[in-house]
Fold Formin binding protein 1-like.
Amino acid sequence: MSWGTELWDQFDNLDKHTQWGIDFLERYAKFVKERLDIEQNYAKQLRNLVKKYCPKRSKDEEPRFTSCLSFYSILNELNDYAGQREVVAEEMAHKVYGELMRYSQDLKAERKHHLQEGRKAQQYLDHCWKQMDNSKRKFERECREAEKSQVTYERLDNDINATKSEVEKAKAQFYLRTHMADESKNEYAAQLQNFNAEQWKHFNNAIPNIFKKLQDMDERRTVKIGETYRSFAEAERKVIPIISKCLEGMVSAAKAVDERRDSAIVVESFKSGFEPPGDFPFEDYSQNLNRTGSDATISNTPKGDRERDGNKLWLFGKKPKVPSLEDFSHLPPEQRRKKLQQRIDELSKELQKEMDQRDALNKMKDVYEKNPQMGDPNSLQPKISETICNMEKLRSEIHKNEVKTLKKTKPNNRVEDEGWKEHHTPRHRTGPPQPGQPHHDPHEFDDEFDDDDPLPVIGHCKALYSFDGEDSNEKQSESVLYIIEEDKGDGWTRARKQSGEEGYVPTSYIDITLEKSSKGAVTYI
């Protein structure tokens, strides 16, 4: 249905309608702009949320629990999901909002041009009408004047008192006015004919063509809005497969949560390697009545069998030096083994790098020897020597850590009374050994303490565990020991067996009771 034939007289209404169409297009563009702003803000908030809950520690310090790993996987998928929301916003910004705004400007310019053509055609028709109307009015006015002159002439011609000159003058005026009326009539007829022709052109050619252009413009606007509706939906639909993969990744992360594996990781992370403590031995306080006599329950195991070796704690023997944090001696055996193995792996990687560098330098040296113009092969020798030296240092460090790993032992939690070897040694003791002193034969008597009078007993204690000796078939335990010197902060307490043998025992592996007479109150550790 054509606007030109059906709406030939609705120029003003079509003017309003085309303006409404452009306003509606811009309103939809504003809607798209607000929608893409929402998408951008949503994506930004999602990324900030992911950043807030992402681990800030290094990967080595992160928990290895499946629940944590799955949560981090979900954060990664959510970050990818946020990226797809940004893609949606970009698609809407370029293919919908930007296109609508450009098209709106084109529509405004085209509409303005068509309306100006319509107004010009209307103005020209109005001009023709005014010319026709003026000629009509002139013709009407000249006819009235001719009629008046005719009446005057007839009156004078019939008047017997009128002179001949007056009659002739009235007659001449009558003829003049009649001629002028005829000319006005012809002019009016011509202008009327011209106006009718222009009016026909206006309503049958000019206005239909202009209205057709406006109709085409409005229909193209409608088609463009429909296309942008489709683009609006396509921007969302394009990312659906990737978003589906993100959601599938989240579901897979949820399925990867394994409670048994997490429990195993807890065991692996905190397992000390120690065995649970055994039964507490019977405490025979009547033994205090005979402090120097022998007791069948107290055995004289050679001092060397009760020394502290690596991570082993011996009830008696030389007082060891405080373990350094570098060899992880402060950790339980199982954790120490893991830390040492981790260090071995790191050193092995560094060693491999040095070996690769050495091989590369040797190849370069061979090239220089074959092609002296490329460089001096002797210039590489210092670097090769340095690399070899680094390799030897790393091998030495790896060997030391491997030895420490092999020396890892566990304290035995079983309390047994057998296995102590009788070994009577003179009490020629000079005090706790200092770090760096040579290791004596296990069956050689220990002269840590001097020949001064024996220290007074300030309390007694009982061993909470028995300890492995150097012989794997030998167990060491003691029912009651006498305290002669308290722990001075280094983790070791000086004690005396009922046989009179003295030595140091780890404070954390005995239960101490101090005499009231020596400390004023009974202390339990």
